[in-house]
Amino acid sequence: MSSAALSLQFPRSDVAQIVFNDPRRGANVLSQGVLDQLEQILDQLADRQGLRGLVITSGKPGIFIAGADLREFAAAESPDPQWVQQMCRRGQELFARLSKTPFVTVAAIAGVCVGGGAELVCWCDRRVMADGPKTQIGFPEVKLGLFPGWGGTARLPRMIGLSNAVEMICGGDSISAQEAYKMGLAQDLVPPDRLLEAALSLIDAEAEHQFYLQDRQKWQRPLDITETELAFLAATGNAYIQQQTKGHYPAPVAALETMIEAASLDVEQACRLEAERFSKLFGTPINRALINVFFLSDRNKKDPGVDDPQIKPRTIGSLGIFGAGIMGSGIAAAAIKRGVPVVITDTQEEALRQGVRKALEEASYDRQLRGPSTQRLLELAPQLQATQLNQEVAGCDLVLEAVVEDPEVKAKLLAQVEELTGPDTFLATNTSTIPINRLAQALKSPERFCGIHFFNPVRRMPLVEVIRGDRTSDETVATAVAFAKRLGKSPIVLRDGPGFLVNRVLFPYMNEALQLLQQGVSIQEIEKAATGFGMPMGPIALYDMVGIDTAFYAGSVMQNAFGDRYESSPILVDLFKRKWFGQKSGRGFFRYDNPKGKPEPDPEIEQLLQRHVTQKAELSREQITHRLFLPMLLEATRILEDELVRDPRDVDLGVIYGIGFPPFRGGLLFWADTEGPQRIMSYLEPLVDLGPRFQITPVLERWAKSGQRFYNILD
Ligand code: NAD
Question: What pTM was computed for the model?
Answer without folding.
Answer: 0.94
